[in-house]
## 1
Amino acid sequence: MRTAVQRYRIMAYITGVLIIIVVFAGIPLQIWGHNTVIVNGVGTVHGFLYLVYIVFAYLLARKLGMRPQPTVLLLLAGTVPIMTFAVERWMTRRYIDPALSESPRVADTVSS
Amino acid sequence: MEPQSPAAGLQGSAAPVPAPLAERTGPTWRFLITPRWLGWHLLMVVSFWGMLWLGDWQFHRAMSGNALSWAYTFEWPLFAGFVVVFWARTIRDEFRLRRDGVVDQPEDEPELPSAIGMAAGDRAAALIAQAEEDDPELSAYNAYLTRLNTEVKGHGKWHGLR
């Protein structure tokens, strides 16, 4: 459980930082500077790390027994700047902390 | 204004929610044809084909000389595959939950220490109140309802005076 949370958190922070770089530095530079270095480089890296994020986030969501709707929200959070961090906090407050403070029995109701 | 119905908002934002009573009757697979799940199936199909289409588009861009598009040419089909895998796994887990009765057993719900020792009804009310307090979206919605209520009350009063 803790490992799943750690993996999710690490990927959330990485994709969260990368998407902010792409959107707030890369895209303005592309539009006004006609320089696509950041969009191409960081954008592609974000694309592939987002794949990893999606896998870890989904596995965590199943472990926590989250309903489909919040799960989809969680997965999409990796593509919206700042949302990634907001959703990570919401996840911690709403799902992760309660699950960690309970007996492991509840957390394991949905085995991966 | 919120486009969602209050019920949808409630279900969507809550932690493991017990299935509504209507869904507990009949065979297990019935939940798959509820409007909510039909929506999920539709979303799955649309995003699967949409992602394949995006992959195809990137492939054509790659063929016409955009080297970077090769990365996305392979990425989009992967996403499309994820959609199907996640959809299938979610349904499988949902079946498991419903069959094992985990969703239906109230004793599997997390119980708050402050709610222990109360009568069942009071305890349920306390749990609901606690859950509502914990959920900013729900408390915002409740505040909105309260505001509407007072507004409507005021409205009635003015009518009465006239």
## 2
Amino acid sequence: MVETLIVFVIGIVAGVFSGVLPGIGGLALMLMSYPFLVGLEPHNILIFYITMISIDQFFGGLTAIIFGVPGSSMSVPSSYEGHTLMKQGKGSEAIMYSAISSWMTSFFGVALILAVTPVLFLVYKVWNTNIQALIFASTSIIIVLVSRNRLYMSILLFLLGNLLGAVGYSSVFDRNFMTFGSSMLYSGIPVMPVLVSLFVVPLFLNTLTSDKKTFEFPGVTVDGYLTSFKNILVYRWTLLRTGLLGSIGGFVPGMSYGMSSILGYTVERVLQQRQGKYKQGNMECLIASEGANNAGTFTQLVPLLFLGIPITASEAIIYNILESRGYPVTIEWFQSTFTQVILFFLISSSLGLLLAGKYVNILKVIDGLNIRYVYLSILILLFGSIYWMGSQIWAGTDYMIITAALIPLGILLRKQDTMPLIYGFILHDTLFDVGDRLLIMYT
Amino acid sequence: MFKTIFTSAIAGLAMISSAYAGEKVDVIQYTKAGAQADRMITYVQESLGENFGKRIVVDNCAAAKKVLSNTSNPTVVAWMTELNNPQADGSPNTCALADDMFVGYLAASPWSICHRTDNAAATLDALKTGDIRVGVWRSAYYNKQFEAFLKAMNPNAKMIPYKKGSQYRAALAAGELDFSISTLGKDGETCPVVLSTTIEGSAQATITASELAPGAPYAVSGYNYTLWAANMDGINIDLLKTVYASNAWKNRKDSRYHPFMTDATRVEQLASTK
């Protein structure tokens, strides 16, 4: 019990770091914690993981909303909608609503799984390539259609994203693609340079050319939270849709909670546009993106707990540790941990809500600062972070060169919505895999 | 309990801080966590004990090659041997490593044909004559071999490639596939056919692929890993012996993987990788 409590506290600290620092995702922290994890009781490894990712979701959204910096690809919508709300002076509102909706959808995900547990295996009976192709194709089409660009531009950007994603040596084709003989490109284009150069830079440039001169962030208050709690029912249908879509996205192999966010967001954006209510900086879309993440955070554990199949890299690490220590990695064992996992997930979600509120007020120091200096500081930090990430694998200079090479493209695209490009880049691997399989199956 | 936490934390800190000491051995992970290659390097990592430095995680083999070529620390990697072969277009493989880094074969396992245990329709007859779908790991190198073998065994068999093992296991459970080819059957799966000269060592196998499909190409084939290392001068560790003697290796779930070509010299082993 004592070990469990200590692990829980360490999981919270790890989750805060993972959420606040861009590019340091849950996977990186799992790897850094490896020496610590191998010494733990097996159920505590699961508790560490669920606590860390649950807390991470609350803090990752804050960085995206306040600074416009998506710590990972799944925070791109929060950055796009939330940071726009921030610039409109609605930052506090955006933070409180997204935190509360995240908390509610966390509980929704648990409730949904508990409700469907007896028939859960049926879901996997229908999770075939056809359904996957349908979901991924629809999501891609929606991403292109809902973009504020002209249609042809969105299609071009989506294709460009796919092209950038395909650069490098491919063991699938056993050949190099668009590497131009440069060893720098053999390992492909890393995610962070793409996110920073082609999403953050255009976003910042757009703001800098607007009338906005200072950063406004009055922070959040307990009263504000209580009022938001009372008013959250206004968004009840969004929450319901998001909870459902996020949960589904989380527990299907090949998707996981990163896809939950994309799914929740794109569906909400279509609905908002059809109702003529969409304008960049849409609260429902922000709630959808943030809420879907959290619902999926829990449900992504279901394949591991019920089928013994790790569907994310972090889960695979857990699986590996258990296996290498000779523990019986069976479905029965995973199921026996289910109650504890639920309990710690719900506690950490509630703590995440409270801690995020506390943390966010520290950032009130930026209130009233010149927006140029704030953005410049963030960019310097991001470039430093990219260099550091690259240098971990002896590729710091390569990462910087790739970032620098992509920045002119980001500047060129500053008037465009680059979200289709980012999603093309992220989804290209899956789209190819599923598309090609579908072709093989039906030809 | 406190002792466990304390020991783990100290061990963790020691491992992290010692990573730069230049005496410890780093390991490289270049595939998704949980993939077979990752499990292999995990066995190596665990077997190194206090000699383990740090785990370097990269996206793919090209990045791993870069690390191995640039690091000044002793570093080891469990390499998917086919990465040493020429590429599909005949050019040298982008990921091929320098010969002087070659340590030896780490392990090899024959491929097996598996199905869900609860799939009563997945019989040997169905495998030979049925209209079946067989899931395989997506690999340019191995897919050609699987395709040729399946075509010879059953012209109605269709090979369906998946990027990850977890995907085709889920597809087996979903009924999208009738069979899969892998080195290890997971919970709920049975592997009655082994692509080896004998069923010995394959607990579930009842028949070899050569017996099932006489004359089929690649009926005896498997997957193997080689060990490569850089900057090991002055490190007094026999990597292969250390791995095989470790508890991590003895407890491995991938029990189908065994030491390979142990009677051959290093030069002979290296030649066979090309």
